[in-house]
Amino acid sequence: MKIRNRICLATILGLALAAGLARAAAVLPIEDPAAQEKDAVAYKQAYALVLEEKWTAARTAMDELVSQFPKSAWVDDARFWSCYSQEKLGQGAEASFKCYEKFIKEHPRSDWADDAKSNMIRLAQGLAKAGKPEYETIIKAFQTEDEEDIRMTALFALQDIGDAEALGTVIGIYDKAASPKVKNQIVFMLAEMDSPEALAKLRDIALHEPDEQVRRSALFAIGDRGGDEAVKTLKDVLASDAPVELRRNALFALAETEDPGLVDLYSRIAATDPDKEMARAAAFALAEVEGKEAGAALLRVLKEAKDPEVRKAALFALSDREEAEALPALKEILLNETDKDMARAALFQVAEIDGPEALAVLKQALAAAKDDDLKRTALMALGERHDPGIKDLLLQTALTSADDETAQMAVFALAENEGGAGPDALLRIMKEARSPKARRAALMSASDEKGGASVAMLIEVVKTEADPELRMQAVIALGEARSDEAVPVLLQAAKGKDGKLARAAIMALGEIGTPKAKAALLEIVEKRPETPAL
Question: Do 376 and 418 fall into the same domain?
Fold first, then answer.
């Protein structure tokens, strides 16, 4: 599904506010980029350049998207932003006007068509004043289409006459306007006006405007301004009887101020607010505040919050911090938490922490975990550690674990560890491991080892292993090794009673292809009455 990022285009502040909204939305699950379509990924990357005001790069990226994905649902978005970037680059009002004009002709039903029309009117006004009267006719043609466009054009023009002169007029228009689109545009204009009166109007809108979307815009405009009055206004909204979604947005806007004086407020909301989403938002707001006080507050929420989702939010918020005090709390959760998801999340956090203390916690988790999934996660985390004692621990787990999945994971973790598992350890697993899956994993890992599996080890498996599947894998691996050392054991297997294994051995000899291997094949043809079909 295509979700458009709608931005008012009066000023670049609109873009900045959109970026703020995106940051506030960080409390929601983020879609995995690898799961998205290539055109959507390309659009998001190009759109990021728009938000950063990198106009040349943005235009190039948008044009490339149109060229590479001409049938994409994002083509109209890309073409609009290409025109907008061209305008921002100052490449001529007429050229920008024609770019928008072409866009509207090709995409008349686009969500961006109204914005393109408004921009055309603004450009046409400038061109008419510059001595090109033909654009007066164009303006009149647009004005007959939509009264709202006329109001938007007037607002654009008001931006050019200065804050002091425009403020009273803009507020008057807002008070009479019925259109949310016009009201939102005025909110963005007020956000640019650095005056107490403009902030007072934004405060009034945030507290009393019936349209919730406009109130949200006002909240983020206030948060973006920052300062004591902005913080006070947003706290008033939090304390009001406004709908919970609006109060949540006030909290997001407060987080944008990054005010360290709000730590206690966030902590209280996270620990006590009856709305789960509100409490989670407060935990993530704490993550936006730097300093040990905020880190300590997150740890308190992690320990004291009653709702598991809020505790998880605090746990994830801690992931971006380097608080040394976090490890004991994570250890407590990891070793004693009854909620499996919470324990697993704590384990992931510990895995990201360097040092011997974190390593010790991972070892304790592996030893104490009653949940097999948690054990497997701990094994993989340990496999990424570079510590001399890790290999012995992983080897013993692979050898002794009765749970197939756990034993197999121990083998893979051992193979991923620095320097690999080594042929001796893998051969020992193939001979001694309780789990058949661990033995198969050892053979797979041996084949993946640098330089390939040891021929001697594979020969040993073919000679002694009782598991027919393992013997089959070893025979195939011997063919890939292309060593004359393997010919005798393959010849013996080819002459054996197991027809499936015999066929695999013959194919392996053919893959080796040396004179010695060819001689073995001739011997099979001459001395075996019923040569298995290849």
Answer: no
Q: Determine the 3-state secondary structure of 298 from DSSP.
A: helix
Tokens of 344: 């697993």
- The pLDDT of residue 66 is 94
- In this structure, are 399 and 368 located in the same domain? no
Asked which of 345, 361, 385 is the last residue of a domain, the reply is 385
What percent of the chain clears pLDDT 70, i.e. is strictly above it? 82
Whether residue 340 lies inside any domain: the answer is: yes
Domain assignment present for residue 5? The answer is: no
Greatest Cα pair distance, the chain, in angstroms, is: 106
Q: 469 and 530 share a domain? A: yes
| Backbone φ and ψ of 403, nearest 5° | -80, 120
For the chain, the domain total comes to 3
Give helix 388-400 / helix 372-383 axis angle, nearest 10°. 150
Distance separating alpha carbons of residues 152 and 185, to the nearest angstrom: 8
Within-domain flag for 276: no
CB 51 within 8 A of CB 18: yes
From the list 347, 306, 351, the residue with the least C-alpha distance to 330 is: 347
Taking residues 345-364, what's their average pLDDT? Answer: 78
Q: Give the mean model confidence (pLDDT) for residues 163-190.
A: 79
Take residue 326 and report the two structure tokens written for it.
């976090």
Q: Are both 378 and 359 inside the same structural domain?
A: yes
CA 364, 370, 375, 381 torsion-angle sign: negative
DSSP string for 355-420:
SHHHHHHHHHHHHH--SHHHHHHHHHHHHT---HHHHHHHHHHHHH--SHHHHHHHHHHHHHSTT-
* Alpha carbons 406 and 53: distance in angstroms, whole number: 50
CATH code where residue 469 lies: 1.25.10.10
Q: What is the pLDDT of residue 4?
A: 45
**527 and 474, same structural domain?**
yes
Residues 378 and 406 both lie in one domain: no
Which run of H or E residues covers position 259? Answer: none
Is the Cβ–Cβ distance between 371 and 340 less than 8 Å? yes
Structural domain including 507 reads: 454-534
Quote the CA–CA distance of 370 and 372 in Å, as a whole number. 6
- Residue 520 within a domain: yes
Residues 364 and 353 in one domain: yes
Instruction: Give the pLDDT mean for 301-305.
Output: 76
Residue 293 CA to residue 287 CA, distance in Å, equals 11
Nearest of 118, 58, 116, 125 to residue 88 by alpha carbon: 58
Confidence class for position 451, pLDDT limits 50, 70, 90: very low
Q: Last residue of a domain, which of 385, 416, 435?
A: 385
Can you give the pLDDT at residue 283?
A: 80
Confidence band of 146 (pLDDT split at 50, 70, 90): low
